[in-house]
Amino acid sequence: MSGDTTAGALRAAEAYLQTGNFNGALSATEDVLAIDPNDIQALELRARAYLGKGDPKSADEVVDQMIEAEPEYDTGYRFKAVLLSDKGGKANLAKAMELIEQACSLDPDDPTNYSILAHVQEQRDEFAGAEETYRQAIADFPWYPALKTEFSTFLVNRGRMDEARMFFDDVAEEMPGDIDVIILRGQIALREGRSDEAMENALWALGEDATNTEAIQLLSQIKASKNPIMGIWWRYAVWISRFSTKQIWVIVIGIYLSWQLLFRGFLKQLEQPIPTIAVILWLSFCLLTWIAPSILNRMIKKELESVKIKDF
Q: Is the entire prediction scored with pTM above 0.85?
């Protein structure tokens, strides 16, 4: 395969990825790897194709090959960090942190590395560290507006809406039609109680890419927030998700102890059926916090399988 042919195959693979044709991308990279099994660009495209297909195991194998072929190439470590962070768990996140720090060391001029570093820090509940990483990266790479989108999303998740809006306004002016910006606009609208505006942005994003997971998650969250029962859980989940895991445990235990004090010290003294109704409401809330995440996940899965949105 000549150099021009190889370049053409790689361009074809990239084009297939952009249109969601992951099998086409895999086929195009096979032609390149048949000549050079360690072609880094082909391996990178292949790993992205497997991730797009929802096959992280195969992607992991390709990433290992990338690292073995070019140990001084940062992208392999970056991919590996993403795969491990997606798995979650303390050990995986610790390894992901080690790998993405290595990627940053190998290529300190790639803003994507710092984006992933901040994401892993957030997953590890290192919110202060993630914020510092975002702010430094935004200062170092002003030409990369995606960092502002991600930092604004981080601030939204922490409940810091005024600060999130500042960064969002900047990036919305720079990239008004970017799908991540559209989804973020919808998230902000939803958190601020403007569900109709949030729905418009979710549909706009899905009109651009009907398989976009973040857009489908936004659509499902909007539906959940409008449901009288799921809406209670959704608002509770939004509020509590801004805290670290340790803080959440403290809050949950505090809520339970407060309930015990309220019930034993006050509600129990009231005439029936008030105490019974209070117990039923408390148990219903506890049950809702247990099953609602599964319900939302099913809603998202159903949307992924069936949503068909007209062009807007």
A: no
